[in-house]
Amino acid sequence: MAECELPQHPLGATLIDLGSHQLLTLERTMEHSTATLWPALTERAVIGRWAPFSPDRDLDRLGPVLLRQSDDLEANANLGKVLTAATQQMLSLNWAADRIDIELAPSPEGTIVQLSHVFADASLASSLAAGWHICLQALDAVAGGIEIPLVVGDAAHAVGWDSLYEEYAKLL
Q: What is the pTM of this model?
């Protein structure tokens, strides 16, 4: 199994106060094409390898979806809804009370991936940023064909979540 080095420094991240909600945005350039990344974002069998949730169906069509935590598939599922599934461009979904948008834009280096997460509790910003940081790195690895262990929940601490949390707390 190839090694996947997770960067221990924050990605470009912003936090915007929307009043009753917060908007966290992380951006990363990946060497993969949008055509390579799209299945990793939308295929049920692949999503659980990089995301904090595992859906009950592919995310390439609009409508309801059940989302379970990837590290505890026996836990109660949260009702979600795919809002946008613009092939190789944008995936938007509601995950319980939160909204997640993942935009793909071709670039000379591959693809710019922008993840935006709208959530209510401002105190979660650093935690969410650290978690999404690791998930985006896992997405990059999975899209590149690298088999990696699950890096969400408790496993995230073993790959640097704590130091990322501290860094994002300073940044945001």
A: 0.91
